[in-house]
Amino acid sequence: MDWLEQELAKALARKEPAAGFDGRVRARMHRRPRWLAIAATILVMMGAGEAWRQHRGQLAKEQVMTAMRIAGSKLNRVQMHLKGTEQ
Fold first, then answer.
1. Which residue of 21, 36, 48, 52 pairs with 17 in a disulfide if CB–CB is 3.0 to 4.6 A?
2. What is the pLDDT of residues 21-46, one digit of tens each?
3. What is the 3-state secondary structure (H, E, C) of 4-65?
4. In this structure, is residue 68 part of a structural domain?
C-alpha cells in the first residue's frame, strides 16, 4: 500500500465520537426545524409574490395587445374609408 492509500484508510477509519456528542446533536436538531420552517415560509412567500407579479404582468400585456389590435383594426377601417373618398 502506498502512502496515499494509508492516509485514506487512516482518515476513513471508524472512530468513537467524543463524550456528549449525542446530546449536542439532539440539542441542535431541536433548534434547526424552527429556523428551517421560517426560512421555508419566507422563500415560499417570496416565490408566490413573484409568481403573482408575473401573472399580473402577463394580464397587462394581453390587455395592451388586445387594445393594439382594436386600434389597428379601427385605423385600418378609417384608412380604407379615406381611400374610398379620395378616388
1. 21
2. 988 988 887 777 788 889 999 999 99
3. HHHHHHHHHCCCCCCCCHHHHHHHHHHHHHHHHHHHHHHHHHHHHHHHHHHHHHHHHHHHHH
4. yes
**Could you tell me the three cell numbers for 70?**
382594436
Nearest one of 18, 16, 36 to 28, comparing CA atoms: 36
Separation of alpha carbons 77 and 42, rounded Å: 53
Q: Cell numbers at residue 40, please?
A: 421555508
> Would you give the DSSP letter of residue 68?
H
pTM to 2 decimal places: 0.49
Q: 51 lies in which domain range?
A: 22-86
Cα–Cα distance for residue pair 60/85, rounded to 1 Å: 38
